[in-house]
Amino acid sequence: MNFHGIIPPVVTLFDEAGNLDLALNRSYIDQLISRNINGILLMGSSGEFSSLTTEEHKLYVREMLKHINGRIPVMVGVGHTALKEVLELTSYAEKHGADGVLVVSPYYWKLSDEQLYRFYSIVANHTKLQVFIYNIPLLTGQNLPVELIKKLAEAHPNIAGIKETVSDFGHLRQVLKDVKKVRSDFRVFSAFDEHLLPAQMIGAAGSINGSAVFALEISVNLYQSYQKGDLAEAQKNHQVISKLMDVYTFGPTFFTAMKEAVHQRWFDVPAGHRAPCDVYPADLRDNVEALLKNIEMKEGTKYERIT
């Protein structure tokens, strides 16, 4: 499966006791698939992979892959600080039908370029799946140099692309410019929502952006409009996405607000959270409700407000 377009990095839904709610997660994924996304990312940062045990990770991935059943391409995050765990999670995702894995650099220790090259090379050599590098210096503590990305792309055909969660748009542009010279099929995905349109304009393959987990119509319509050459419609959606960026200001763990938005939009049960993230700002629900009430979603051929 060829990953492209809008790929929501889905949140993981818990019950009020903080346990995985598999039925609710299945229903949530169905809502996303029904709205023309191009793929889906399980166990990304928004999916709280770092809060799950290995067994919970496997249970969730197995059940969601079974439920998706090939309807859209699925990328699975396999982030961990221990390489052996990364390899085990990669093998598990491959065994159960994933189309690709998203691999974040080991966090906590700052690694040399040589160490990072060896890390990603071992993962790439371990699997037949498409491997996507996950560059998120905000949480790993270090930005991946363009030359390192280029070297990995040259050496490993199954390192298929990168998710660039970087505030420096110039870095994303440089990766597109330099890595494409040696690998024309290398796919660069933007991550920050406000980078979606400008990244499309310089050749990005798509976006794995946070607001797509609850307001996916905006991102999907922007992407489709740009592909059709309708720049006026793309700009309109870009302006809406700029408003959606407020969701990142509602608390330090941004997935908490995203999860609240998912529940307010589609479910009549309170959002469940896992400690310590079950403590959140008192005005979180009100802030999310106000944001959703002022954003229009495109359903079919007309715009409808979320209620």
Give the tags.
307 residues; alpha/beta; eight-stranded parallel β-sheet; two-stranded antiparallel sheet; 45% helix
Verbal overview:
This protein is an alpha/beta fold. Helices cover 45% and strands 13% of the residues. It has helices at residues 22-33, 54-68, 83-95, 113-126, 137-140, 146-155, 169-182, 196-201, 216-228, 231-244, 254-266, 284-293; strands at 5-6, 40-42, 74-77, 100-104, 130-135, 159-164, 187-190, 206-207, 296-299, 302-305. The strands form 2 sheets. The protein has an 8-stranded parallel β-sheet with strand order 1-8-7-6-5-4-3-2. Strands 9-10 form a two-stranded antiparallel sheet. Mean pLDDT is 95; it is low at 299-303.
Largest sheet: 8 strands, parallel
Give the strand line-up of the largest sheet: 1-8-7-6-5-4-3-2
Poorly predicted ranges (pLDDT <50, ≥5 residues)?
A: 299-303
Q: Choose one word for the global shape.
A: globular
- Helix content bin: 40-55%
What sequence of helices (H) and strands (E) makes up the elements? EHEHEHEHEHHEHEHEHHHHEE
N- and C-termini, Cα separation? 35 Å
List the total number of helices. 12
